[in-house]
UniProtKB/TrEMBL annotation:
Taxonomic classification: Bacteria, Pseudomonadati, Bacteroidota, Saprospiria, Saprospirales
Top-level division of the source organism's lineage: Bacteria
GO process annotations (BP): isoleucine biosynthetic process; L-serine catabolic process; L-threonine catabolic process
Lyase recorded as keyword: yes
Catalyzed reactions: L-serine = pyruvate + NH4(+)
Signal peptide stretch: none
Protein name (record): L-serine ammonia-lyase
Swiss-Prot/TrEMBL cofactor(s): pyridoxal 5'-phosphate
GO molecular function: L-serine ammonia-lyase activity; pyridoxal phosphate binding; threonine deaminase activity
Amino acid sequence: MPLHQKTACRKQWGLSQRSGQNIYYKLDCQQPSGSFKIRGIGHYAEQLKAQGVLSLVIASGGNAGLAVAYAAQALQLKAKVVLPLSSSLFVEQLLLDLGAKVYRSGESWAEAQTLALELAQAPQATYIPPFDHPMLWEGHSSLVEELAEQLPQAPDLILLSVGGGGLFKGVMQGLAAHDWPTKVLCLETEGTASLHQSLAAGRQIELAKIEGIASSLGAKKIAQAAWEAAQSPQVYSRVLPDEQALWGVKQLLSETGHLTEPACGLVRAALVQDWPEIQAAKHIVAIICGGRTMPIEQLSL
Ligand SMILES: *Cc1c(COP(=O)(O)O)cnc(C)c1O
């Protein structure tokens, strides 16, 4: 039994009716850790357990940290999660609730990661990267396998958000495995646009800093494998402002009953843009990636 769940894929009737398209929500907000990340991290954690690993280490105050904590308790492993000193108590409590051991170190993620890499030197411990690992991509590709069972035909377009590009790379692998000609629209907020800016520059760039509210998309540099996958003519990249992402969170809350993060609301907001790649599609899947790390107070921002 994998650690992730098979999630529902539901037609969004109101949006579909208004646009004359078939718009489906792939509800990965239903995953037990609150986001799609358990697909890849659960898959990797199972392999590691089979190899005799006893503790999983990560530096993440986001959904990757939550997925590691969830996977560890499900597999009876230890989870060690390092947060920078500035991380919120809200996230720390979510991690503690899942039984993780929480460490705090440094002003920045780079410093927290240094401690995580040190902790991972202990015998039978392994550092889990949040998005840049083939096991993660293989796990994430299960999402496309489910779509193949759930949909009457291959979608014309899949919408997803991009941080470091792990989800994107996994979806591209899944599409290739099914030989689907589906186009993929990658979404980022203005302050997290590492893929979009790299595509504009024609080379992988590193953002000087991450800005705005979509913290789950805050990778300064896209993974090499995701960058390569993004060179396909099947792939589009667009950017929206934070206000749109927050608007999307509210829409999703009222449409699905799930509170998600701006990293996910962004995908909802993209559905109503007048971009040609959206207008040209008839069957559309929006990956509702979820996310549990936004305190509800931020909704009124
Ligand atoms: C991690 C995450 C993303 C981005 O995934 P990447 O694999 O880093 O591109 C998007 N949405 C949510 C909710 C996430 O947790």
